[in-house]
């Protein structure tokens, strides 16, 4: 079926697809196709495609309709995919069972269905799971060219932050010194290293650090990542005044670690500070906390104020990109 497609190098295919999909531009009626070394992504409105992308006419085959869980249920289900795992959040056991059965009867390429059985808890930020289908909580997640093995019962990981992680990673330049204070299995650290940064990645969860090291090997960046198990407040003596970039993705309590972040910062350092804040003033408390910790030793410039997602009624998950410059 001849129609408009974005032509890209396959290495940029997933990032481009996600950009187009977030803008509602992907034509789901035609297949994404690889031919002669290029990837062709069908688009519904070529005039709305960003100018830096190459739009061409291409004969992309029609997509065969696939059965989804919604096709098999009398309600519109909510779930998320993580590798070959589908995650649901159902309190009613009968509803959870029906949804799991529909997932497995659909065309989704899934091996496991997990139901959230608790909130994230403890210092290691893990939750309990009810395994509805399958026998493992481990999977391999892929985002923007990075492969991440993860065991959801042992470590914290959210696929919902993929776009945000990519936004930050695109700012990284070769030769930077980057420090991820709460690194998990490496969703920030590994893309940073892939872009040529020297990375220190710290986490209190020893299993997460084991996965991070394995993921660094999996993605070919192990030589650029120092993975450290422990409390980040204990590494300042080795990395004081070191970092050009710091990630603080611990939104419920990152403010408790700001003094440590300032100790780790070099003469000029960009901090990505994540927070959970009320919608009436989503950025003010975080900015005030950063200024209290950094000034007067550093001047503080807020580069970005951004809402990552809605977190709860009247609460937002936000990020501040802040540049510290030593006074």
Mean pLDDT: 93
- What's the total helix number? 9
The strand count comes to 17
Low-confidence stretches: none
CATH structural architecture of the largest domain:
3-Layer(aba) Sandwich
How would you describe this structure to a colleague?
The structure is a single chain. With 327 residues, the protein is of the alpha/beta class. The chain contains nine helices and 17 strands. The strands form four sheets. The protein has a seven-stranded mixed β-sheet. It is globular, with a radius of gyration of 21 Å. 35% of the residues are buried.
Give a brief rundown of this model.
The chain has 327 residues and is of the alpha/beta class. Helices cover 23% and strands 34% of the residues. The chain starts with a strand and ends with a strand.
Which terms would index this structure?
single chain, 327 residues, alpha/beta, Alpha-Beta Plaits, GMP Synthetase, Chain A, domain 3, Rossmann fold, 3 domains, 7-stranded mixed β-sheet, 4-stranded antiparallel β-sheet, 9 helices, 17 strands, 23% helix, 34% strand, globular
Architecture blueprint of SSEs:
Blueprint: E1 2-8, H1 13-22, E2 33-35, E3 38-42, E4 54-59, H2 69-72, E5 80-82, E6 85-88, H3 93-105, E7 112-116, E8 129-133, E9 138-143, E10 146-151, H4 162-169, E11 177-180, H5 189-194, E12 198-203, H6 206-218, E13 225-229, H7 236-239, E14 243-248, H8 258-264, E15 265-278, H9 284-294, E16 298-312, E17 315-326
Parallel strand pairs: 6-7, 11-12, 11-14, 12-13, 14-15
Antiparallel strand pairs: 1-3, 1-4, 2-3, 5-6, 7-8, 9-10, 15-17, 16-17
């Amino acid at each position: 079926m001849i129609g408009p497609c974005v032509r890209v190098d396959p290495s940029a295919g997933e990032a481009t697809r996600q950009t187009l999909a977030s803008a509602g531009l992907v034509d789901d009626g035609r297949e994404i196709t690889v031919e002669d070394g290029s990837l062709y992504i069908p688009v519904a409105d070529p005039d709305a495609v960003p100018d830096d992308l190459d739009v061409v006419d291409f004969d992309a085959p029609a997509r065969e309709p696939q059965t989804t869980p919604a096709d098999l249920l009398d309600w519109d289900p909510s779930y998320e995919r993580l590798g070959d795992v589908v995650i649901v959040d159902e309190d009613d056991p009968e509803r959870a069972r029906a949804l799991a059965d529909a997932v497995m009867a659909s065309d989704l390429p899934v091996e496991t269905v997990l139901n959230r059985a608790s909130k994230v808890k403890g210092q290691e930020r893990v939750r309990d799971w009810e395994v509805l289908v399958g026998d493992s909580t481990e999977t391999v997640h892929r985002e923007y060219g990075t492969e991440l093995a993860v065991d959801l019962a042992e470590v914290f990981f959210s696929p919902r932050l993929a776009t945000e992680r990519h936004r930050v990673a695109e700012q990284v330049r070769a030769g930077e010194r980057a420090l991820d204070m709460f690194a998990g299995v490496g969703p920030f650290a590994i893309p940073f290293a892939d872009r040529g940064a020297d990375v220190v990645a710290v986490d209190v969860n020893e299993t997460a650090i084991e996965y991070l090291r394995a993921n660094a090997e999996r993605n070919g960046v192990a030589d650029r990542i120092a993975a450290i198990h422990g409390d980040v407040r204990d590494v300042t003596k080795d990395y004081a005044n070191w970092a050009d970039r710091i990630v603080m993705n611990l939104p419920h309590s990152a403010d408790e670690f700001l003094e440590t972040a300032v100790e780790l910062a070099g003469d000029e350092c960009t901090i990505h500070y994540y927070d959970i804040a009320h919608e009436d003033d989503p950025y003010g408390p975080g900015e005030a906390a950063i200024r209290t910790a950094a000034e007067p030793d550093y001047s503080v410039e807020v580069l970005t104020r951004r809402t990552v997602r809605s977190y709860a009624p009247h609460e937002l998950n936000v990020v501040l990109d802040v540049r510290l410059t030593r006074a």
